[in-house]
Structures are given as C-alpha cells and as structure tokens.
From TrEMBL:
Subunit structure: Homodimer.
Protein name as annotated: Heptaprenylglyceryl phosphate synthase
Lineage: superkingdom: Bacteria
Underlying gene: pcrB
Broadest EC class assigned to this enzyme: transferase
C-alpha cells in the first residue's frame, strides 16, 4: 500500500517532466539517499514527457510515484500515484471535480491501493499552482490551523501538504499546522536551498520535498538529504 510506503519518507525529490535534467544530475539525485522520487509539476505536463522521465528513472531502485495533475497525463507503471486535492480554493474542480472525471474515465481500472490522497494547503500566492487553482493563499496562522484540524479530525486524510512552491515558507505557519496533526502526515515543500531552511522545516514536517534546487544547484540539492535526515522531528500533537 502506498500509504505505508510513504510513512517511511523523510526526504523526497520532486522532478518536473517539463524541465531538462542531465543523466549525471539524475544519477546524483537517485543515488543521494533520498527516500523516493515524485514526478510532477503544474504546467506543460504531458504523457510523453512523463513517460520519458519514467524510463530514465527505471534503472534506479528508488520508489517512483507520479503526482497526478492532468487527467491526460497518467502514465502506467509507477510504484504509486499521489492525488492532490486543494483545500484552500473555492474551485470545486481542484477539490474533487477533476477527480470525478478521472474516476468516470478509468472506472474499475484504478489501482486504489496504489493511490495516496494529498490535501494541499497552498500558501505562496505567487506560485503557478496558486494561480491555476485560484487558491486563497493569504491565510493567517489560525486559518491554516483550521485546515489542519479539518484534515486530521473531520476528513481523516492521510497527508496534508503545505505548499510554498518556489518560495521558502513561514516557520510559524508550518508549526501552527503541525500542532493540529497527530495521525495525518505533514509534507512540506517550497524554496529549500540552504541547510538552515532544510533543518527548520524538517523539525515540523514528516516529509520534506525538494524541487527547484535540483535544477539550479544539484550538488546542494543532494546535500539536503542529510540536512533533513539528521534533523529530529518534533513530537506530534
Ligand atoms: C492504468 C492507469 C495507471 C490508470 C490510472 C489510474 C489512476 C492513477 C487514476 C487517477 C484517479 C484520480 C482520482 C486522478 C485525479 C485527477 C486529477 C487531474 C486531479 C486534480 C489534481 C489537482 C488538484 C491539480 C492541481 C495542481 C496541483 C495541486 C498539482 C500538484 C503538483 C504541484 C503542486 C506541482 C507544483 O510543482 P512546481 O514544480 O512547484 O510548479 P511548476 O511546475 O509550475 O514549476
Ligand atoms: O520546487 P520547490 O520550491 O523546492 O518546492 C517543492 C514542491 O513543494 C513543489 O511542489
Ligand atoms: Mg516545477
């Protein structure tokens, strides 16, 4: 089951099929000691690009999952599929609408045990994902904590993903969210480029996601693995 697999992830890299990465950089990323590779992005995502990246990733033993952002770009053969649902938007399409369409299209062909639902709280209003989903990204700590409470106690979803895509986040916000969570796993992603940033978010997030740094400075990206893994996670609840 993907949920059990993800329970062991402390650090993951998110690779964007719409961006170029040399074979050498890919090798460094896959041999870095990270726990898994997420393939995903928001724009220019095509079936063909995902398929090509999947083929290149196959020679490594690392778990590889696809984060689905487009119904026309779901490539078979991944170890699992992450299904985002954006909580802080009023657009039903990004909460459950696209999901219903996918269910209508794939029906009983969906390998349910290989799916993991991610409840997204998007907090960088400048990010592409925020613009795409028309997220209400200007939350204060109290509002952010309410989303966490909703996910933990009412929805009982497996994962809450705090998404600052492209920008390093506010530690106080992440801590406020974390305080509400006991069973729900917390993913943090956004703007990690330094040791201090990696350690800060690794204190509060069960899983730390590193994306852009792979493309701007792969040597540093590889270092984030030990920066995260050597940091003690604060107790939950
Ligand atoms: C045979 C076979 C494999 C069958 C398929 C079975 C299967 C896996 C079915 C899926 C069923 C299902 C329920 C699918 C959901 C479909 C769907 C399109 C849902 C909508 C998802 C969603 C809310 C998308 C909005 C955007 C979003 C939140 C994307 C997540 C990734 C993200 C935040 C990327 C940001 O990346 P970043 O790199 O920072 O940004 P840029 O790319 O812009 O730089
Ligand atoms: O690309 P960065 O800013 O590292 O963010 C990682 C991930 O949360 C993007 O979905
Ligand atoms: Mg990207």
């Amino acid at each position: 089951m993907l949920e059990q697999m993800a329970a062991g992830w402390r650090h993951v890299f998110k690779l964007d099929p719409n961006r170029r990465l040399s074979d050498l950089s890919l090798e460094k990323v896959c041999q870095s000691g990270t726990d898994a590779i997420i393939v995903g992005g928001t724009d220019g995502i095509t079936f063909e690009d995902i398929w090509k990246l999947q083929k290149r990733l196959r020679k490594y033993l690392l778990p590889c999952v696809l984060e689905v952002s487009d119904i026309n770009a779901i490539v078979p053969g991944f170890d699992g599929y992450l299904i985002p649902s954006v909580l802080n938007t009023d657009q039903a399409r990004w909460i459950h609408g696209a999901h219903l369409k996918a269910i209508q299209r794939y029906g009983c062909g969906i390998p349910w045990k290989q799916l993991l639902l991610l409840g997204y709280v998007i907090l960088n209003p400048e990010s592409k994902v925020s613009r795409l989903t028309e997220a209400n990204a200007g939350l204060d700590e109290e509002a952010a904590a309410s989303y966490a409470c909703l996910v933990e106690h009412l929805f009982k979803w497996p994962v809450l993903y705090v998404e600052y895509s492209g920008k390093f986040g506010d530690e106080n916000m992440v801590r406020a969210i974390r305080r509400q969570l006991k069973k729900t796993r917390l993913f943090y992603g956004g703007g990690i480029t330094t040791r201090r940033q990696a350690e800060t978010m690794a204190k509060w997030a069960d899983t730390v996601v590193v994306g852009n740094l792979v493309y701007t400075n792969v040597e540093k990206a590889v270092q984030t693995v030990s920066w995260v893994k050597e940091t003690n996670l604060q107790e939950k609840g």
